[in-house]
Specification:
about 375 residues; Immunoglobulin-like; alpha+beta; 21 strands; elongated; about 20% helix
Amino acid sequence: MRKTLIIAMVLLLLSSGISTANPGGEGDALRSMECGGSCHGDAGSSDISPSTISIIVDDEVWAGLFTTVSVVVEGVEPSSKRLVGVFLLTNENGAKDTPAHEGWTIVSDANGGTNNYVELEYPRDADSLTFTWILRAPDAPIEHNLLATVHHGSEDGGNAFQGQSETIVIDVWTPPENLARLAADWEPPAVRDIGEQTTISLETEDVTSFTAEYRIDGGEPVSLLVSDGSFTLPAAVNPGVVEWRAHLEGDGPDQTTVWFRIVAAEPAWEVDETALYLQAFALLFLFAGLVVMQRPSNGVDMKSYDHTNQVPAMDTVANSMYGGAAEIFTQPLQTHSGPPLPPSGLPAGWTMEQWQHYGQEHLDSILREGVQ
């Protein structure tokens, strides 16, 4: 049994080293590109991806305002799980390379989070896959760099693959004076539950009026009713993305916002902590009870060792044959093997092992001396 267990463990260890990819992915997160194998595989052990990666950015990027960055991945041959991960980065150093290090703020990613590493499923009937981020540009009106890397597995489940886009240079400009804009501290919602309408109230600067519209899957825009600075998006029937934007008007230049994205998802599973703790304690008590039941009893079954019913017969025989010397048999029988010990205990210099083997001869010699 032990040999079988050792062989099984060795096989598992060997099989885990066959693939350098993680077909199940690692989940969205804020990560530098050199994530030490916590993504689909170490960059040093990855093959070059056959995919093509391109970055699309809005024509005008204003300092401190919202902008859209999209990464389009084409020609991927992913694993059976079809997961593809993309990093949005600011340099190729492998450290301090997230957008936050250059002053960018991730407002929402392709899955409604605020991560620079995102995983999506590559559709079987599509030629490309698009990852979209909404960012708030840095406050400094200077040039900034952005690039993207892609990570995915292979159809045969072997090595991981990694590809990298060209680094693009983005000019971040100072906004025009009195530009109609969204407030600097306002943030759009990025995720919602299926079946719930979403009411959005805009906070603006230098805006006298605005209109709003939405679209689904890049379709034709549909106008929304605006009342008291708010509008309501219809409820989502299925998981997916709804995009909306606003046309802002004011005394200064007008502005059309980016297409903000709201990801509709199934309601999150809520954990009842009280019930969870109770279940944990119940399992603990059950395990403790099973352990106690499996332990051997501390009591000793004396039936197999109790020969005291033989003592009276031996006492009677000894009294009739040997007189007073028979009192050595009147002590209770000990639970050790060998004859019973005399009242004075072990003879001087004797060990219990010697008594077990030669004690009876010693007693017999004493009885013979008493008879003589």
